[in-house]
C-alpha cells in the first residue's frame, strides 16, 4: 500500500512537462466548496501555492478563496490555542497543590494540543515551501493527469477513490481504496480499469512496515506489533509517473467528487527486503498516452504497460 507520497503538487509542472491543460473549473470548484464549507477537502500547501501569483482572473479568484479559508482556519486555531492554554494553566495550578489523575491527563492533552495548533499556525503563515508541503496522505488532494478529447488535462482529485455509483459509506467500509491492487483490477475496480486512467507524479513514497520485518527479527521479540514508516526514493533521482485509476462520483444533493487510487503490484526485491509487500507502479514516459487513452476492449495492452514499467532501484531509510 502507498501509505503516503511526496508528489508534484504544482499543476504548472504538468503543463510544462506534458503540454497539459489545467481544468480551471475543477480547481475553482474545489477551492470554492472548501471555502464555503460545502466540502472538507484537504489540500496540501504546495497545491495552494501554485495560485500565489495569479496568471488570470480565475487564478485570482482561487487565490482569494484560499486566503479566505486560511484566515478562517487561523481564527479557529487561535481560539483553540487560547482555550488549551487556559486548560493547561488550570491543570498546572491544581497540580501545585495536589497531583490527580484528571489534572495530569488534562495537562498532557493541553500540552499536545498547544504544540499541534502552533505547528498548524506556522504552516499556514509560513511563506516558503518545505518538502512536506507536497506530501499527501489518503483523503488529501493531488493533481492527476487524465486524457480528455485527445488532450492531456490536469484535475484535482482526492487520494482515495470512491467509484461512481457506490455509496459514500464505502470511504469508511473500504478505507484502503487509495490503492488498487493489480490482481483486483477486473474485480472491485472493474468500473474504472480500461475506462478512467490517470497519472500522478511522485518523488518519494512512504510505507508503514512491521518493525520486526524491517529489523529482521522475530515478532515475538517485540512487545507489540510495532510499525515504522520508511521513505523509498528512486536511486536515479527521477520522477515516477505513477499509474492510477479514477472516478467521478455524483449523487443528488451532493457535490461531485473526483477521486483516484494508485495501482500497486508485487514489490521489487529491495522493497520486499525492507519489509513491505506492495509497491506503486511507475509507467514509462513513452507509455503515458497509451495508458491514458483507455481501451476496455484490449485489457491485455493495458496490463502490458503495467508490466513494461520503469524499474528504478528504491533506496530506503526511516522517514523523518
Automatic annotation (TrEMBL):
Pfam family name, one: SRAP
GO biological process: one example: protein-DNA covalent cross-linking repair
InterPro entries: SRAP, SRAP-like
GO MF assignments: single-stranded DNA binding
Gene3D superfamilies the record matches: SOS response associated peptidase-like (3.90.1680.10)
Protein known as: Putative SOS response-associated peptidase YedK
Lineage: Bacteria, Pseudomonadati, Pseudomonadota, Betaproteobacteria, Burkholderiales
Amino acid at each position: 500500500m502507498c501509505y503516503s507520497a511526496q508528489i508534484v503538487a504544482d499543476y504548472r509542472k504538468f503543463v510544462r512537462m506534458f503540454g497539459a491543460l489545467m481544468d480551471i473549473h475543477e480547481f475553482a470548484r474545489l477551492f470554492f466548496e472548501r471555502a464555503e464549507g460545502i466540502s472538507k477537502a484537504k489540500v496540501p500547501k504546495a497545491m495552494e501555492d501554485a495560485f500565489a501569483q495569479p496568471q488570470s482572473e480565475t487564478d485570482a479568484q482561487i487565490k482569494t478563496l484560499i486566503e479566505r479559508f486560511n484566515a478562517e482556519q487561523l481564527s479557529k486555531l487561535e481560539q483553540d490555542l487560547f482555550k488549551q492554554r487556559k486548560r493547561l494553566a488550570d491543570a498546572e495550578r491544581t497540580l501545585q497543590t495536589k497531583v490527580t489523575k484528571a489534572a495530569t491527563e488534562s495537562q498532557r492533552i493541553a500540552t499536545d494540543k498547544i504544540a499541534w495548533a502552533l505547528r498548524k499556525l506556522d504552516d499556514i503563515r509560513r511563506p516558503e515551501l518545505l518538502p512536506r508541503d507536497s506530501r499527501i496522505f489518503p483523503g488529501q488532494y493531488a493533481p492527476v493527469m487524465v486524457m480528455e478529447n485527445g488532450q492531456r488535462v490536469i484535475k484535482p482529485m482526492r487520494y482515495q477513490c470512491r467509484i461512481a455509483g457506490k455509496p459514500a459509506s464505502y470511504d469508511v467500509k473500504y478505507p484502503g481504496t487509495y490503492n488498487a491492487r493489480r490482481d483486483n483490477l477486473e474485480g472491485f475496480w472493474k468500473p474504472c480499469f480500461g475506462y478512467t486512467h490517470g497519472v500522478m507524479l511522485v518523488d518519494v513514497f512512504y510505507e508503514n512496515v512491521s518493525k520486526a520485518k524491517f529489523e529482521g527479527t522475530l515478532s515475538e521479540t517485540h512487545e507489540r506489533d510495532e510499525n515504522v514508516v520508511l521513505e523509498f526514493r528512486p536511486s536515479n533521482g527521477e520522477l515516477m509517473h505513477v499509474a492510477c485509476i479514477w472516478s467521478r462520483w455524483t449523487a443528488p444533493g451532493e457535490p461531485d467528487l473526483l477521486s483516484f487510487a494508485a495501482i500497486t503490484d508485487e514489490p521489487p526485491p529491495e522493497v520486499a527486503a525492507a519489509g513491505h509487500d506492495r509497491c506503486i507502479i511507475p509507467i514509462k514516459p513513452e507509455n503515458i498516452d497509451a495508458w491514458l487513452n483507455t481501451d476496455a476492449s484490449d485489457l491485455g495492452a493495458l496490463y502490458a504497460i503495467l508490466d513494461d514499467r520503469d524499474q528504478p532501484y528504491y533506496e530506503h531509510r526511516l522517514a523523518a
